[in-house]
Design goal:
A hairpin with a 5-residue loop joins strand 9 and strand 10. It is globular, with a radius of gyration of 18 Å. The strands form 7 sheets. Strands 21-22-23-24-28 form a 5-stranded antiparallel sheet. The relative contact order is 0.11. The chain is mostly beta strands.
Length: about 290
């Protein structure tokens, strides 16, 4: 099962990681597999998540054995391993500067690592259940974490000091996030199929819509469009003004595990063992939007 995927800043390279212990590098333009990365020591180490360095050649991979592994995708070699977590790593991300990595584990621990010294330089307290998603704002000012303990927490960049709690326990488990730069807000996908948009400084809910029948596990934003993907196998493309209208992408035959933007549009990975690339045409999506009712 493909558990995580990420695209570099240009969208020309996509990397996917799987519980079969492989890392696959794909051409974002034609969808062809460029290389498969694996070392003998990884054979019994399922892979959960992946994130690109801002400069696009290095990726950090979160593993079931509680380690982080950094790979050079161009030279096809493992660069380093970071250890310190006690449980499986569920989410990881690079800071926009590339100087730090944040990782989140099954036990709720969130660590901040220096990419220069390869050591943990801080931890973020507050979560007590698995942390499912971590993301930095594009300017690095805030780090947002989302957990199965029903807490979405905004912290001050790489310092890890809490700034605001987003939402409430009644919203349920939070699985994924994407930051909306024009409005300085964060969109969060929930276990019950809802997507909510928060003011990151005040925590106020700006809009909420139930777009899926099951957990939302992927969110991405580009060119005024937001894409949401769910374990119900559906992908919806929408803009806040269009809700409750959206455009559906149909193709996967099982639960979707992750979704990102690539150079030509959307890329989504599924438990049906496929990765699909969808064309990016905002005018077509908006024009063909259909009502959820």
């Amino acid at each position: 099962s493909v558990r995580g995927c990420a695209a570099n800043s240009s969208g020309k390279v996509i990397v996917s990681v799987s519980w079969d212990t492989t890392i696959r590098v794909w051409n974002g333009s034609d969808g062809k597999c460029v290389s498969t990365l694996r070392t003998p020591r990884q054979r019994n180490t399922p892979l959960n998540c992946v994130a690109f360095h801002p400069e696009g050649q290095l990726v950090v991979v979160g593993c079931w054995d509680a380690s982080l592994k950094v790979w050079d995708t161009y030279n096809q070699k493992r660069v380093k391993t970071l250890k310190g977590h006690k449980t499986s790593i569920q989410a990881c991300a690079y800071a926009p500067s590339g100087r730090h990595i944040v990782s989140a584990a099954l036990d709720g621990e969130v660590r901040i690592w220096s990419t220069k010294s390869d050591t943990a330089v801080g931890t973020i307290a507050g979560h007590h259940d698995p942390v499912n998603s971590v993301t930095f704002t594009p300017n690095g000012q805030y780090l947002v974490t989302a957990s199965s303990d029903k807490l979405v927490q905004a912290c001050s960049g790489t310092l890890g000091q809490p700034v605001a709690s987003l939402g409430s326990a009644e919203f349920g488990f939070a699985h994924c996030m994407t930051f909306h730069s024009p409005t300085q807000t964060v969109r969060v996908g929930y276990h019950d199929g809802h997507v909510r948009n928060f003011n990151i400084q005040t925590g106020a809910v700006l809009f909420a819509s139930k777009l899926h029948s099951a957990a939302v596990i992927g969110l991405a934003y580009r060119d005024k469009l937001t894409m949401s993907a769910s374990v119900d196998g559906s992908i919806k493309v929408w803009t806040p003004p269009s809700l409750p209208k959206y455009f559906s992408l149909v193709g996967h035959k099982a639960a979707i595990s992750c979704a990102v933007w690539d150079v030509k549009g959307f890329a989504s990975a599924s438990e049906d063992l496929s990765i699909l690339i969808w064309p990016h045409d905002p005018r077509a999506y908006v024009k063909q939007a259909k009502s959820t009712k």
